[in-house]
Amino acid sequence: MKKPTKKMVAPLVITVLMVAYYAGLAAAAFALRPPVIVCILAVVIPALLGGLMIAMCKQRIQEIRSGEEDDLSQY
Asked: In 3-75, which ranges are E strands?
């Protein structure tokens, strides 16, 4: 594995785990049968958070590919 490829594994693993966690929360909302508004919120909020995780992962992969592994050194 090339060095940049190894650095991409951690963000991808964390993203997959977090999206799976959010999907589990949404599935649990349907299994518990709460009121409709709670069910809607329990699906919409995790979906938004999952989308945010995917967007952050894409941004981090772009940073790694461009050579900005240590973005804290800019500050």
From this structure: none
